[in-house]
Structure formats: structure tokens, C-alpha cells
Amino acid sequence: MRVLIIGARGQVGHELVRQAPPAFELIALGSHELDISSAAQVNQAVAEYQPALIINAAAYTAVDQAETDTERAYAVNRDACLHLAHAAQQTNIPLLHISTDYVFSGQAAQPYCESDLCQPQSIYGASKLAGEQAIAQHCPQHIILRTSWVFGIDGNNFVKTMLRLAQTRTELSVVDDQHGNPTSARSIAMALWRIVNLYQTNPSQPWGTYHYSGTPSCTWYEFATEIFAQALQLGLIAAQPSLNPITTADYPTAAKRPAYSVLDNQLFSEKFGINPLDWRQELSAVLLSLRAHSQA
Ligand SMILES: NC(=O)c1ccc[n+]([C@@H]2O[C@H](COP(=O)([O-])OP(=O)(O)OC[C@H]3O[C@@H](n4cnc5c(N)ncnc54)[C@H](OP(=O)(O)O)[C@@H]3O)[C@@H](O)[C@H]2O)c1
Question: What is the CATH number of the domain that holds 128?
Fold first, then answer.
């Protein structure tokens, strides 16, 4: 079974390649090989490679930059999803796609379910929601996996930023009034491969939109505290910077983030038998890999 992985050089894309079961033939493309904002390139790639399934891990993920680079954000996060949905629908293959907790407003007081109202607060969130809608409308065989606060070995993420800052700073201020779920890129990749495996044995799957994130929920400040505690223990940093909890108002950003975007994973667990992983254990694995890379 041939699987086309798009966005193969991103955080999740790398892990999709790393975690791929050997039984599948991979066509893993970065943005230089396939620009999904071009319908012609999408159609040509699908015609040339004739995949049995597409996984889209590509997105415009620069949340603050999207506020001014709006056209590009919509081209990648909405229009490209429409091109992929059309191509998948026309060739009768499934499309697995990743979306975000930023489709929600953040005003809730309990974890968001799939059926909860989407009210994005940013261009990034709005463009991702438009992409979800394009896929849901035009490609019946789809899985949209909403996830949050992604970290891993590759690319840029909060864990790597904290480790970098710890090299030069003795004191750091981190937002403590935004609540979410750190999620390892590896766990997302493994969940997607499990769906592919299930599809291979039974092409009739409960297609639709699902939530999948790490557990338990925390704030960015709590996430940073755990990163530094583990990094110190593993010898990745010489000393822990002193951490100050601050409010969102103390740290203005171009894009508004949801104050509370905890995702309810129950539906996904029920339908696919995939349970959320403890992000603290996933963090340990990422830090060990980073340490091994730095020693190599
Ligand atoms: N990062 C998070 O915290 C987070 C949270 C929730 C949901 N998500 C979602 O999770 C998915 C994976 O995110 P990630 O963190 O792995 O993102 P990432 O590391 O930023 O990777 C995204 C990839 O998309 C590629 N890309 C961008 N524009 C493209 C285009 N026009 N054609 C083809 N490829 C293109 C990029 O390639 P280049 O680098 O070559 O441009 C990049 O390798 C995305 O759907 C994202 O919205 C992420």
C-alpha cells in the first residue's frame, strides 16, 4: 500500500516517516517537491504516484506571522486542503489531515468535544478551520485530527525554545493563564499510522473529525517547569533558569491564543482504540533523543 506523506519535513512529517510500519511504501514530500497551494502540483503528484492514501502534515504554522501574511496562510491552510480533498475524492482514496485546538475561542470551562462550536480567535485558527470545512465538504473518506501544543525532535517548538533560552538566561517569564495539552509529534504520527493500519484491514472507517492530544492538561508555565526539571536531570542544561509565571496580558503577541483549549479525546479513544499518551513521558523520550544528537 503506497502512502503519500505531505509536509514530510515538519515536526509531525518527520515522525510519520520515522514511525512508518515497514509494510507501507512511502512517498514523503517536502514543500520543495510539492507545493500544495498549487492545485496543478497536487493533481500531478496524485496522478504520478497513485497513492492508496494521503496524509497531510503540511500547514502554515507561523501563528503570529499569519496575522499579516494572511493570503499565504489561507493558501496553505484552506485552499491547499480543497485541492487535496478534490484529488482524494476524485481518486476515491482517504485523506488524513491534522488540525488545531486554535479553532476554538478558549472561553470554555471544560474540555472541548468535536461537536463544540468553533470560534477561532486568530487568522491561523480561522484558516485551519476553513481547511477542515473544505475537506469535510469535498472528501467523504477523511480523518481530521485536531491536536495541540506539538513538540518533538525536529523543527521548532516550545521545548527546543526553552532549552535554547536556558543556555543564555538565568531568569524566564512564561505564560501561566493559557491551558492546553502538550502533544508529542511521535504520538500523532503513531495515531495516524494506526488509522492507516485499520483502513488497510477494513476500508470502512468512522470518517470524521476527532480530538487527539497529550495528557494531562497544563499551562505553558507548568510545561516549562517540567522541561527544565527533566533537562537538568538528563544533563541537557547546566542550571535551571528561575521561572516567573506571567499572564497573557504581560506577554502581548500578534495573534490571540485561546485561554483554554483543552481537548476531550474520548471519542477518538472509543472509535479507534487509541488512548492519549502522558506528554511528560513523551518529553523524556524527546529530551533523550536531543541529548543523543548533541553527543553524536
Ligand atoms: N506546531 C503545533 O504546536 C501545532 C499545534 C496544533 C496543530 N498543529 C498542526 O499539526 C500539523 C503539523 O504541524 P507541525 O508542527 O509538524 O508543523 P511544521 O513543523 O511547521 O511543519 C509544517 C510543514 O508544512 C510544510 N509546508 C508549508 N507550506 C507548504 C506548502 N505550500 N506545500 C507543502 N508543504 C508546505 C513546511 O515545509 P517548509 O518548512 O519547507 O515550508 C513544513 O515542513 C499542522 O497541520 C499544524 O497546523 C500544530
Answer: 3.40.50.720
